[in-house]
Amino acid sequence: MRVATWNVNSVKQRIPRLLPWLDQRAPDVVCLQETKLSDDAFHDVLGTDLAERGYQIAHVGQGQWNGVALLSKVGLDDVRSGFENVPGYPEPDSPTEARAVSALCGGVRIYSLYVPNGRTPDSDHYHYKLEWLSRLRDAVAAGDGDDAAANTMLCGDMNIAPADADVFDPVAYVGHTHVTDPERDALAAFTSLGLHDVVRDRWPGDRVFSYWDYRAGMFHKDLGMRIDLILAGAPVAQRVAAAWIDRQARKGSKPSDHAPVMVDLDTAPDGDIGPVVPPPSNPAKRSGATVKLPQSVEPGE
Question: What domain of life (predicted)?
Answer without folding.
Answer: Bacteria
